[in-house]
Design a protein that fits this description.
- Helix content is 79%, strand content 0%.
- By secondary structure, the protein is mainly α.
């Protein structure tokens, strides 16, 4: 609707200018019996100059606006691709870490039990690997390329993923839970994984559909 209004304004300015030029060139008013000596040519000249300036401004505005729209679309497309990549990695890594045999064979032996999850490099690497473009994504969000809703989902997935990775590795033996406390942790890990998968599937499906439509 906004573009249509601009085009209408442009036509209102451009057409009268062309009409005046044609009338003057072919001297049609005199041919039709009008007294041209009564015409204020200074006023017409001023109107023509103003019309040309405004027309040039509108044309320039169109070109700048078109470039800005293309730039905004590219930024949104980039944001979607970066988030989709992060979510795909979250899905694959969370699935791998949730595989008990792989966890016990390749992860647990590398964990220093005397350190917290925040100090264990293996856990930190697994937590951060999907989010190597985190600062770039935040910058795109700050510039308006990511909606508030998409950003909130992204941050929710980030927090839930990191929490799941930490808990699943730290309490890797919860499958053999016997006490009520252990069973509580085991239940939380399962619930977190289910919620994470649900969010990831929803966002991945949405982003793939949006990227495909471009």
């Amino acid at each position: 609707m906004e573009k249509k209004n601009r085009l209408t304004l442009f036509m209102y300015l451009f057409i009268p200018t062309v009409v005046v030029i044609v009338l003057d060139y072919f001297n049609l008013p005199s041919t039709l019996g009008f007294k041209m000596s009564n015409v204020n040519y200074t006023l017409i000249d001023t109107v023509l100059n103003v019309s040309v300036v405004i027309s040039l401004y509108i044309i320039t505005f169109f070109l700048i606006d078109k470039r800005q729209i293309r730039k905004d679309d590219n930024a949104k497309g980039t944001a979607d691709i970066l988030m989709l990549s992060a979510y795909n990695q979250c899905k694959e890594l969370s699935k791998t870490v949730d595989t008990q045999s792989w966890l016990e064979s390749y992860i647990v032996p590398k964990i220093d039990s005397n350190k917290t999850a925040l100090d264990n490099r293996v856990i930190l690497n697994l937590q951060n690997t999907p989010f190597t473009e985190h600062s770039h994504i935040l910058l795109l969000a700050e510039n308006g390329a990511i909606s508030r809703g998409d950003l909130m989902k992204y941050l929710e997935i980030l927090e839930l993923y990191k929490s799941f990775i930490s808990l699943r590795i730290t309490f890797y033996d919860m499958n053999d839970a016997t006490t009520d406390k252990q069973k509580e942790f085991h239940s939380k890990i399962i619930n977190d994984k289910n919620e994470l998968d649900k969010l990831l599937d929803s966002e991945i499906s949405k982003l793939r559909r949006r990227i495909k439509e471009v």
